[in-house]
Batch of 4 targets.
Target 1
Amino acid sequence: MSEEGVKLSSSKKKVIVIGSGPIRIGQGIEFDYSCVHCVWALQECGCEAVIVNNNPETVSTDFDTSDRLYFEPLTEEDCLNIIERETTDDLESFLGIIVQFGGQTAINLAEPLHHQGVPILGTPFDSIDLAEDRNRFERLLNELSIPKPPGRAVVATDAAAEVAAEIGYPVLVRPSYVLGGRAMEIIFNENDLYSYMTYATDVSPKKPILVDKYIFGKEVEVDVIADGKDCLIPGIMEHIERAGVHSGDSMAVYPPQTISPQVIDQITNHTLVLAKALDVVGVMNIQYVVENEQAYILEVNPRASRTVPYLSKITGVPIVGVAVRAMMGQSLAAQGYAGGLYPKRSIVTVKAPVFSFSKLTEVDIELGPEMKSTGEIMGVDTDFSRALYKAMVASGYDLPLSGSMLATIADRDKEESVEIIRGFQELGYRIYTTEGTNKFLRERGVETVYVTKLGDINEPAGIPRLMDLIINKEIDVLLNTPTGRRKTARDGIRIRRASVEHGVPCLTSLDTAAALLTALRARKEHAEFDVIAVNDYFAQ
């Protein structure tokens, strides 16, 4: 149909939904899910739903999903042109735009569109800006007496060094207003900080750099729905890997398994207080780090997160639908929901990332603050260890109950690695180790087979070579925790890339290794696992 033939006026109220654009690392199909469910909820409310998105490989851009689709770039200019076209002859029916379900791409459009007078539905723009503006947000947390890791936002390299010296290394540094933890790093010394700042200012030249004290604790993630008055927390997800691994690359479990009731209460109270202070209408995501029974806020995202599809299915709360109806003026109470933490289900679910390192040929597979996963899966059971096993297998870690492991452990991780490696040995795994790891483990009663490192050319004949074990697939899994030293860091990258190229599963986090050990033990104890339709689990 020609452009002139499209009827733009109707008797219904009209809402424009801003999508997330092309799928890439950090922003994937989970936001397409949210946009589609947003459109459906708007239509159920009697509204005409118009979507702006430019990715042909999504459901949101199917011709029959929305009332009208604009397959255009997600830029200020293009969005303003679309809004003008939709409102020129029908301004009274236009309610506004929704930016909460298109990830960081949509949120980044809130400011320019707001300044052009475009009404933003849901959480007010000033609250969105407050959550994204580090200095304003820190003042709010202080007013509310909600703790956060010490740190400040800076715009100059010398200022970053001053903050780091004041709060102490290691520090977590990242640009603001970026996607998927891009350019986020843990910095251990001043030289690395100066090198980082040169790169970070290129990534986000007009925004401040955030410098925070790095807390080596347990991360917890919360999604909240609010109607401007009452707040509902559908569920809390505990990350299995400790802080320092991006939430998109970390495994997460619902309900939390190691977080105490006291800390759960802290998180619940902080979340409800903050949602009200920000006047949230719709959804919001908060990430916490827990250390010594104290929950600290790491960041707040005034939008839907990648955990929304999981929590919706797990808890039975249609998060997007409830949030959209709240934007349309229906209170949580009117929708049948009380405020506070929603009662937890009797099931246990584990979300695990999926990686495409075999196709990303020059990417180091080390897990860190910058997201690298390209997908996610979920394991479901009534027991944590069995759900964990299912998640590990589905994400590519289908290991035998006994076999061989090659371990090369950084000095700072050696003490913690002892019991994990001992556990694999007790399962029946033959442990190969390089010199430093071999000596450390043997002194603690763990017998291992010594192998040569990269570059060792004077070793006696008959000593296995590290790279040969990987290339010949003589090991079932590689455990390699990265070190900060440059020479060993380069060697580590070569070792990890070799594991990918030859199909050997590689672990770079001791937390992931401990989770895999738990899963294998569960598999050994339970010869048969129940296979139940997912809807039957959620009906429990």
Target 2
Amino acid sequence: MTFKNIFKIFTVIVSTTCFSQNLILNGSPSITNKVIFLDFDGHVAVGTLWNSGNAVNALPSTASNANKILIWKRICEDYRPFDVNVTTDSLRFNNAPANQRIRIVFTPTSAWFGSAGGVAYLGSFNWGGNPGTPCWVFENQLGYNSKSMAEAASHEAGHTFTLRHQSTYNNLCVKTAEYNPGIGSGITGWAPIMGVGYSKNITVWTTGKSSVSCTTIQYDHGGISPGITSPGYLNYLTDDVGGLSATAKILNLNTTTLLDSGIISTPSDVDAFKFTICGNRYVSFNVKPWALDTVNYDGANLDIRFSLYNSSNVLLATDTSLTRLRTLVGYNFTPGTYYFTIDGGRSSNYSDYGSLGKYFISIKSNNPPAMANTILTNSAICSGQSATLNYTSNGTPTNWQWTVSGSTITSSILQNPIIQFNSAGVYTISLLASNANSASCISIQTINVGSLPAISIIGTNNIICPFESATLTANGANIYNWMPGNYSGFTQIVSPSVTTNYTVTASNGSCSNSIVTTVSVSPNFTINVATTSSLLCPGQSLTLTASGANSYTINPGGVVSNSIILFPQITSTYVVTGDVGFCSKTTEKVINVKPDFTVNLIASQTTICAGEPISLMASGANTYTYYPGGLTNNIIVVNPTVSTTYIVYGTLNQCSNSNQIDITVQNCTSIEKNNDFLHDFKLFPNPANNFITIDLGNKTGSIEIINAMGSIIFQEDLNGINLLNVDLNNWTKGIYFVKYSNKNNNVKVKKFIIQ
């Protein structure tokens, strides 16, 4: 079934099991950069395309520990030919590159999707993201059966590697089954992994008709695309055993029993093993595929094909049964050198294309040599190292002839010579150890001297500022360990507080190398900001001075200096950025400016006769001082004899401001021109309650009423008005001033009170 490139698999309904704890299992622990993560612990999928973008809160699997192991083993065998680690370890998943990993969630939470046994997005293995887009196995839809859960998991993971379904069609090219159900029964009953193989023993990768059309042939691996080994996904494992007599792995049959193993990783892979017989001997070869058991070979993928040859490449014996998976061959040997080959076979139900996987060899023989010697080798020798050659023997040799062949040939007659391996490669070690009474066969052993990984650390910011992080990324190997911290993974994000040396030890299998990088931390520093004052009156200035760094920028203004004179008009925040090298820090300084205020000043008259008294009234501040005279009150009475400018200084919250007014003193002998002004006006009642009446005597000019704060709250232009009534019902109780101005801008002021 196809839905937005989503594929879901066949469903089965059965019964349930119980919960279990998590296990840490790794199929290929040396592979860290590609991971299939079997997640049995529950998962919350957010930020994905699943469930129309809504979160999926998946419950943990109900599988027991024993069933988890069975599931993991089956999936491991399906992916054994490829360079990927099948694991239950979340740390392995988290440390793998985001575009080289897939999470398979095993859960009974399936209602959000439907009745499928599992579902995956096509090609999602390399989509990336954190934690990425998982695929799903719905165990409740699979009867909680461990085989069905494993089959579904391998199938859904196949989709993430771009595989579509293997389908069946009739001779008219009409699809008869979306999921190829396979054929046969018993041990060799077969179905493709990308079909449906819940009832078949052999479920393998295959080549066949894709669900796209009957003319579209899908190679599950080894093709161009799609496929497991298409670009950006997985690769075949490197061949572990040569396929010819010249490249065969050497076996020493100097004892009665020998065990070995190997992997058939591609359809063309053939593994060859060479041995030497000193006398007449009968030898049996029993080769079995990996399986969960050795009766029904449950879970096996490899059908063994065995062939035995002499040194002239003449076929001596073969076992290619079409009805069983293992081989058993016995042969009577005469002295000489022989070899046998193992590769994937076929049956009447399937070809050898998908016959891949691990095998185990058991060799038994009679009539071993009188003195049997076995070379003991160190399997972890790396280039540039030396090793002492050792052996075991069932006798007491007194003569030794060692030969080491590789990039150079070295010989020794010492019992335990020390050999220097200067370069990587395959070395053949032979030993003929005997004494005067006992002969022996030559013992031969091959060793693979590994190369030291050429590691480097790239993309490193080696100098950081305090409390910052640096990203350390190593390459050139498969496994990495970082110290201090004992962290794994090729990338580490570190945040040292002081300059620190970081050592990464990297390995490719058994060989490791180390490299050191230094993350330097610039000295910590603190920016200090001092000001000559932190509280100003409007119009005042202060000096701001910064210290603690090498250079400074002060904002607003972008002033590059450690000191600046400021004239803030309102409360302001200044940001100081200090630099030491390439490290920067910022701090803020708030300068508080008290609110601005205005001192208001009015006079009862601005034009008077010499010596006539007038009132000066100031408002808007708390205290007042008048000059000339130095009088201190908000209302004063003065009797100027000459024209005078009066200045009042007001203070509020320790800040001061001023205002001034000009009083004109005239010669009263000519004041008849101003009789209109000098004629007084009357106010009544005073004090007032609801209204005030102003008797103007038909004057012209204007009337203003001013409150004690100096604000004009009433204004009226006059045109011969006799009586002016002002409604006071909504006015606040207090002192008010009536200011009359005539057409010549002469002023007369009177005070009244509202009770």
Target 3
Amino acid sequence: MTTYLFKHILIRDTVYSMQLRTRLRELHARAAEAIEALHADNLPPFYADLAYHYGEAEIPDKERHYALLAGRRAADEYANDEALRFLTRAMELTPSRDKATQYEILSARETVYDLQGNREAQRHDLQLLFFVAQGEQKVDVVLRQARYAEQVGNYSGAVETVQRCVELAQTYQKPAAEARAYLCWGRAEWRQGHYHAAMPLFEQALSLARQANLPDTEADSLRNLGNVHLSLGHYDEAMRAYEQALPRYRALNYKRGESATLNNISIVLVDQRDYAQARTYSESALQLKLMIGDRIGARIAHSTLGEIAWHFGQLAEARQHYEAARHLSEEVDDPPGRCEDQVNLARLAYREGDYAAAREHSRQALDLARGLNDANIQALALLFLGHAALGMEDYAGAVAAYTESLALRRALRQEHLIAEPLAGLAQTWLCEGDLAQARGCIEALLPCLAGDTAQTRRTLQGARDPTQIYLTAYRVLHALDDPRADELLRQGYAHLQACANRISDADLRRQFLENVAPHRALAEEARRILLSGAFQFGGKS
């Protein structure tokens, strides 16, 4: 009797449960249908609700439809985790034979993974996309593969892949894809320091974008043209390009492009020694990057903010930003970022007087940059390797590092960036007691500092530490009893005061003048020889 009653209770509960689930499915289906009817003219805000109700109603076709739409909407609003949840659910519900829907879902999901810097997941979706793409869809997939190669530092692979993409885009008459392909090609060349090869590629992308009325690609082309101009020391042209790109991004509500451009403008302002304004732009960029979940973009903004703090002598703050940048680089597969992180840490260690650490970070940066074939970062890493060697009195090592950095700058045709390795060589030869070699370096350096010329402005804007250039040149000329020494010191002090005068905040201005060792040393040298009143300087106290 007990067994019978037990089975009867189980049957009753099972039947009741089945009736309840059936009733709940019906209610969820009715709820979804009611939403569709009531909000037929404005369904997008209800895509997530509809996906939920049709999921609970166990109507997979409808759930898949709305899950895809909800995922796309969430991605557009930078709700990245929610976008991935809906897109992954839509993928689970899509039959393997439905290649078209799979392609649509994977394309959207790969874009989110790209923004997040989740390279492993992105690589997996690219592989899936390759197998489901049909016909002209292959153009888009090859372009995505080229962009991925560029992002992970495989620049030669990116160029090879994107050239195939250009051919496919022309075959299928896809001007949008062709424009984006030239854009990717240009970025891969720019990353390798091939600036004069990158310029016409970006110009071709811009031309195609305008012909095909592609405002997003037009903005991207302008911004990347700005990057090339910046690399070549054409600061006015770079700023003009960025200022054209920024309103276009804002009109499109494209936060990723807007934030990148804000940080690009900040970098120009840093080079122009307008640090306070640069900080405002980079802080805005970082805020946007964090809002949209762009971790690689956030790393770049942290790096720029670290450099600004470094220029003010705020080394603890600089370290916070540099460490935040390094943490983000480690979270994602970002070889170019890891390379830049090591340069930043080398710069910081050098300013802190920890030359052994500066040397180690510089060597790591150099190894990474050589693996990426990034000549620009190689030259920068070699500069700080030279500084570290000089600080450790390894004069042979300093000469070797500075000489290679100088050769790379000249090979890249970055004449505005030769002053720092030249000054480093001059200082090294002076320490060695080889005044003839020191004089030779100074004579090569002085034309870069000759008066208020365009070349001088470009040199001072491009240099990481222009005050150190003036200080070194003065000390070498003074040691040589060269009559030009005092005039060069006057120029350097005037430049330092001009930079300080652009800082409206009195405390920040004081930190800029007193906390930065080269600034303090140059001011002390100037005060020592200016007691006679031979030179007069303006500036805020």
Target 4
Amino acid sequence: MKQYKVLLGAAALLLASSVACTDEIAVGDAGLDKATSSTATIDTVFTNAEFARQFLIGIYSKQYYGLPYTNGGTYQPHAGNPYAGKSDGLTDCWHQFWNGSAVFGKYYNGSLTAYVTRPDGLDGPLYSYDKEYQWYSIRASLIFLANLDRVPSRDMGDDEKFRLKAEARCLMVDAFWQTFQRFGGIPIMDHVLENSETVNPFPRDSVEKCIDWMVNQLDSAIADSHFPWVTEDPTNMSGRWTKAGAMALKCKILQFAASPLLNPQDGQPYYTGAPAEVLPFIMYTSDAKTNYQQRWDRFATACDEFFDRLNSSGYYALMTADGSPKGSTEANVPAFRLAYRKGYFLRSSTEILHSVRVFGQDNMATARYCWHSWYSQSVPRNAYCPTQEYVEKFPFYDGEPFNWQNASDRTYKEAKTVDGRDTLVFLTNSKTGAITRQTKSLHTMFVRGSIPSGSRQLNTVLTRDPRLYEECIVNGLQKNLDWTTATMSGYPWELWYNGADGGTGVFTQTNTMFGSGYGYNKYYLGTGAYSGDASADSYRYQTQWVALSLADMYLTYAEALVMRTNKDVAKAVEMVDKVRERVGLPTMSRIWTMAKNRDAAGYTANSAEAAVATAVNLPNGYTTNEFIEELLDERVRELGLTDARWFDMIRYKRTDWMTKQLHGLLQHRLVSDKDAAGNMIFVERNVAWVGADRDNDESSTQPVDFRSEVVEIKGNARVLWGQDPKSNTVQQWLLNPLPQAEINKQYGLVQNPGW
């Protein structure tokens, strides 16, 4: 039967991309194809403890790794190819300025269809239905579960067998989950299919059945007393599934299940007029309205269980700044930056619940080849540039929300031209005529400071949420942060028009590293060089993908606490404050209790409790509340480039994020001059400092004065911009199309609506 070719016809374990796979045993195509009709290969693997362990490692090698890291590869999951692209680039917080990936070629230009004809799948969705090795992983996990007990007890004790079985269940669920959240209900393979079963239909399973199957599998693993909360050797065994990871994954699955996409409060599908036959695969249909709240409560209970276990078993904790700096002061921002960086970047981090690593193709095998080298001035292909909308979500260091108008008011004053027209001019010192660089103005929205006597470079002081500088490269930020002392060093990033790094990119907005006037720093920590980049903070560090983190769990729990039947807003604020305190920010509640913060953010509630009850009517036709809106912003501040914004966009049906025009920042360098009357004036000097003025003029100091303007992003414009977010034309993009070739095989797949 044709579904046999989909699910069973190739190897479950192809080990080329795994960082842990140094084994010599062949468990590839021939091995597992024979396993369905012969016991020869299974006997070989499961009568030897070491071979069995390596078999499981092979399944680990096919986990989802969320950074495009290598250009092609016979055994590489499709999503790791930069010619496919990153889901974050589909949201409102990043924009891809390279036109060679499917992000542009299939999504931005709206040409994605269900017809995938290329063998590599690059004319299909960013995450492929059948080219991520997910079906191989599921089947291999089932083979492992069914046969591990055949390993002689003298070679592998029961304790280890139970533990490895629990790991296999997690690997199986994770492979299924990655596909489910992008396509909706999919076929469940709950046992190793035999040849005789391949003639039977293999249809999609309902959302409800898929969720329950995943949760039940995880519950089996979690309940096993041999499955550790944390690995026995966290330094050398990081990346293994644990009870903590399994419990966190269960929370994420139930969060998705309770969210509006699958659990609409009105009982209506996201796509108006969706055929009745597809409804069970795109939403809950069994007592949809009646059980709406029960699903949120089920999610909240899972979170309760995770944090109860965390409180009793410990170990996992957010990384904090050395020396325990206190308070929301500018001086502490670098130390808080470093704490945040260590939390996601270092293998030794105690806040990582599950991580994934792969071999890269650079000379240090750090998995930086495409993600790092292809984000450089000479090869700017992974140009997922932060948008102005994203950057403005980061408050100032003291928690005051950034507001462009407020910053502009601290930068300009009203004036009249000589012919009587209204205009704006810079606020200047009444005695010297120099530009007044007020705090929280456009001049100091990223950095401030002075140039010490005898120096040519700014004594840089960072003015915003420390996470801004770890998520984004901004104008004036120094390129290095010491891993031990949190001391900033190196030249500043020059992102103004024609600056040494930004060049003309923000004007051309085509195949450029800084097309929005910003760059990404998360998982990068580089200096813009293509080959080697030995000056990068990330040099010789292996780039791991953080699949599940404690920071995410705190924010996930906060959502559960305000969505459950018995709401606990105070505890929800406490959970959010865990991640804010780690970077020196004050309590979340001050966004509503302080009038200036409330006004800057555009909120009306005067407390967190009131925010939960204050409705926000959205352009997509749905209603949320101020607390959830702020929580979603906090999530993307904390979890940038981790797929979290895409995950939130899909589950909350935020098609208004898909359709709004996005923006960048254009900055012009200014220098002082004199007019004919001897008055100080400011003129544009759009040339580089490093490599130009600095090298040619010993008196030239680091530029600090700029004229800043928000500009529309026009390069690689998205076809959905400006469309009605309530229309089916937009709503259909919430779930991917299944490959038409699979539907045509007539084994039971039904297409998602709109495709």
